[in-house]
Write a structure and sequence with these properties.
five-stranded mixed β-sheet; D-amino Acid Aminotransferase, Chain A, domain 1; 38% helix; 6 domains; alpha+beta; 845 residues; OB fold (Dihydrolipoamide Acetyltransferase, E2P); Helix Hairpins; single chain
């Protein structure tokens, strides 16, 4: 037999064996025979390389490691699904569709919801050309090379020219699930995207881990993580060693052909073309049929060969799907019915505080290890202090732990009868366990936060990302990966350290991030080393443990004397980044205040602080009640500012920015004259939120006791003599007896005097045509950006707001203005178009 003919026959036999094993679950040859055929094909292709094709079974493991995954934009987004957790929600789902389509009887395709990794496979003229992860639904990662290693994924579809299959698999052998019988002659579309789930069967997962334990390899945490991690290996040869499987559950883009107009028939057609489809997929009728399917699958859940976390219901009728459409990022015609999370009992050994990237203080229970849903759980979230109080969780308690959504372990209840004697209620600690700053709770919020934003190591990466962002200090080129590695290496410990970065460090960072292993890094570094001492440098790099994720940080921390070879590395980007960092030193006050990342202080609040107070040195020392004298700054924002500036670590970070970083504020100015009528001792008493102290009572009190010192030294009878009711006098006395309050009054009085001393006289304040007016911009402007328009309006005295309310005086509506325009019309607010805005600006330059 001619080699070319034999190669075609071998490929046909091997693909047919794959199809019968993975799709029909009816293997027709033993494994040893499959291996013999594959070896013969490999030998023939090695002797005749011109006959090798990308879809040959020998090409399932091709090239070596990739540097990184490319992005793939999905032609049709991979949508998420809404969730149902009760029978009532399933009935509501079916009823909504029936009401919309005006059909009393509905058929649904029901199928198990696999706990794996969603992927999209693209076939052109029946040949697999690209595979991508779901990613964020719009953009995923190109994992084509890794998906080629998954034997259950066909490289060439059955029925296309040259495949040589004798039958479609549904002639002699019945379809393995109750789906419609497909048309074996149905033409394959020119472009076909198939969506499905890559997963790891339970038995194969256990075998893999057993082998890993025996040979000192890496043990996988669970089948889902095993599948996801396997597909994201940069070396497809590693993926090929993992026991991955695949089920198709739908399609994406289809061009140059048609699919059946029902979901179940489409699944049957996909199986005919060579895709595995779950044998548990069924077509059922109405909500009762859905719930019956859910219960039957739930009873079989533990015995299934793969992990599932629920079932998925899809309206089977394609026309009905199109009529129902989508809401947000989910189809209205499909829903996931999740199984109840699995629970176990264990003991709370400790309750610790975990500080998140944004400073949120989350209590975490340290548990006696327990198996929950196939995973050993040692920690569980307690969400917040309110949840702990509600459950009354204490150290030593026996608790019920659940993996919420089969992912995040949480404590859901206490077994009260098992509580040991001597336990005490838990209380949120006063200080951050990481940096020592005060932990504060916002009014009407469940979340407690560390107030050491700039100084807390737990928040360091997020702080630096925000500080460098475009609307803050605008350090262009400082991407997330650079920040991650610079912080992990200990080179950047705070925002001021950005201004210490050297060109050498950035170029070294690029080499480290691009290298896939210490060996690769040594090769990349070698051309840039001086001859003397280069051997020691390379040996030190090669000794790094490439199995740990932190080897890059340790490599970057090494001090190396480089002699950069410009022919071997691009340097302009590093020069540009150093220049961008240097340019950011010359900052406006509002940008710097926003860049500090103070909780609740956005761009508009930062702008107001800069305009009214004019100087960072004043703002950073100001007692918090005085911030409330500014328009639109309430108690929550004022207290957040106060907590931030009270933390020594934050003040040190600001000092470092100004001295080490040499950041210069170019628009320092005296406080606004408009502050004069807003500031006096009576206003301070009111803004300090002293119980029952109203503006009238504060005026009466300060008329009799005109200084903070006299108020602090007074007795309750003096307050009564000044006109306060007995209850108010007692409340004021109790407030003054609390630690820190007398100092707050003294500091507030001092800073009021400083502001009044340096602010210009009120009569010198220039007024603009929009003074006291609130303006909202909406829609697109052709002649300028909304930011530019807002700046021009503010220069004329306007306050530019982001939302329309009864306090809004004017709305400027550009192209495609939406809900804000509609609300302005509803409230009868004056509305300008762009032409009116330009005319006004021309008349008031």
């Amino acid at each position: 037999m001619e080699p070319a003919t034999r190669i075609v026959e071998l490929r046909r036999q091997l693909e047919d064996a794959n199809y019968r094993y993975h799709v029909l679950d009816e293997p027709n040859i033993p494994d040893i025979e499959y291996d013999r055929l594959l070896r013969e094909l490999d030998e023939l292709e090695a002797a005749h390389p011109e006959l090798v094709t990308p879809d040959s079974p020998t090409q399932r493991v091709g090239n070596g490691p990739s540097a990184k995954f490319a992005e793939v934009r999905h032609a049709i987004p991979m949508l998420s699904l809404g969730n149902a957790f009760s029978d009532e929600e399933v009935h509501d789902f079916a009823r909504r569709i029936a009401d919309k389509l005006k059909r009393p009887v509905l058929k649904f395709s029901a199928e198990p919801k696999l706990d794996g990794l969603a992927i999209s496979l693209r076939y052109e003229n029946g040949v697999f050309v690209q595979g991508a992860t779901r990613g964020d639904g719009a953009t995923g990662e190109d994992v084509t090379a890794n998906l080629r290693t998954v034997k259950a994924i066909p490289l060439r579809l059955r029925g296309i020219a040259g495949f040589g299959i004798r039958d479609s698999g549904f002639g002699e052998t019945a379809a393995p699930s109750p789906l419609p019988v497909p048309n074996p002659q149905s033409p394959i579309p020119a472009v076909l995207e198939v969506r499905g789930e890559v997963y790891m069967p339970r038995a194969d997962f256990e075998k893999y881990n057993e082998h890993a334990r025996l040979h000192g390899g890496k043990v996988l945490a669970n089948p889902r993580n095993g599948a996801a991690g396997s597909l994201r290996q940069l070396d497809p040869r590693i993926t090929a060693q993992r026991p991955l499987a695949f089920f198709a559950y739908g399609t994406g883009l289809v061009e140059g052909g048609e699919l059946p107009d029902s979901h179940s028939a489409t699944l049957a057609q996909l199986r005919a073309w060579g895709f595995p489809v779950s044998s548990l997929s069924e077509v059922v009728e109405g909500a009762d049929g859905l719930l019956d399917y859910y219960r039957r699958i739930g009873e079989r859940r533990d015995a299934l060969p793969f992990d599932i976390d629920g079932v998925v219901y899809k309206l089977d009728d394609g026309e009905g799907q199109r009529e129902m459409g989508f809401v947000s990022r989910a189809p209205r015609w499909a829903i996931a019915h999740k199984f109840p999370a699995q629970e176990q009992a264990t003991t709370v050994e400790a309750i610790e505080i975990q500080i998140g990237r944004t400073g949120a203080a989350t209590p975490v229970a340290r548990l006696t290890p327990v198996h929950v849903a196939g995973v050993v759980v040692t920690n569980a979230t307690l969400h917040n202090a309110d949840q702990i109080e509600r459950l009354d969780v204490r150290v030593g308690d026996s608790v019920i732990v659940r993996r919420a959504g089969d992912v995040i372990p949480e404590v859901v209840g206490v077994i009260a009868e098992r509580r040991p004697e001597g336990t005490v209620p838990w209380r949120m600690p006063a200080n951050c366990p990481v940096c020592g700053s005060e932990i504060v709770r916002e009014e009407d919020e469940a979340v407690w936060r560390c107030s050491g934003e700039l100084s807390c190591p737990a928040q360091r990466k997020e702080t630096i990302r925000h500080f460098a962002s475009r609307r803050a200090m605008d350090i262009e080129g400082l991407g997330d990966k650079y920040v991650e590695t610079l912080v992990d290496a200990g080179i950047v410990r705070g925002v001021a350290d950005l201004y210490r970065l050297r060109r050498d460090q950035l170029l070294q960072l690029k080499l480290v991030l691009d290298a896939e292993s210490p060996e690769a890094l040594a090769g990349a570094v070698k051309p840039h080393l001086r001859p003397e001492g280069s051997g020691d440098v390379l040996n030190a790099i090669l000794k790094l443990d490439g199995a740990d994720d932190d080897w890059r940080a340790r490599a970057l921390a090494q001090r190396i004397d480089f002699a950069w070879n410009p022919k071997k590395i691009a340097t302009k980007w590093a020069d540009n980044l150093i220049a961008a960092i240097d340019d950011s030193r010359d900052a406006t006050l509002e940008r710097l205040l926003f860049a500090l990342g103070i909780q609740h202080v956005g761009e508009s609040t930062a702008k107001a602080l800069a305009q009214w107070f004019g100087d960072l040195e004043l703002i950073r020392r100001l007692p918090w009640p005085l911030f409330k004298r500014l328009p639109d700054i309430g108690g929550e924002v004022a207290r957040s500012l106060g907590h931030f500036f009270e933390q020594p670590g934050n003040q040190q970070a600001i000092d470092d920015l100004l001295t080490v970083g040499k950041v210069r504020i170019r628009d320092i100015h005296p406080p606004s004259a408009k502050l004069r009528p807003e500031l006096d001792l009576a206003a301070l008493l009111v803004e300090a939120e002293i119980p029952t102290i109203t503006p009238l009572r504060a005026q009466a009190l300060t008329a009799a006791l005109p200084t903070a010192e006299r108020i602090i030294d007074a007795e309750p009878q003096h307050f009564i003599a000044a006109g306060l009711p007995e209850a108010s006098a007692a409340a004021l006395q109790a407030w003054l007896e609390q630690l820190g309050h007398p100092r707050l009054l003294l500091e507030g009085e001092k800073y009021i005097a400083r502001i009044l001393e340096s602010a210009p006289p009120l009569e010198e304040v220039a007024t603009g045509p929009l003074d006291g007016k609130t303006v909202v911009l909406t829609g697109g402007l052709a002649s300028m950006s909304r930011d530019e328009a807002g700046a021009k309006l503010e220069a004329l005295g306007a306050k530019v707001a982001g939302s329309v309310s009864k306090k809004t005086h004017l709305v400027v509506a550009g192209e495609a203005a939406g809900s804000k325009l509609a609300k302005a019309q509803e409230l009868g607010i004056e509305i300008w178009d762009e032409a009116q805005l330009l005319d006004f600006l021309a008349r008031h330059p």
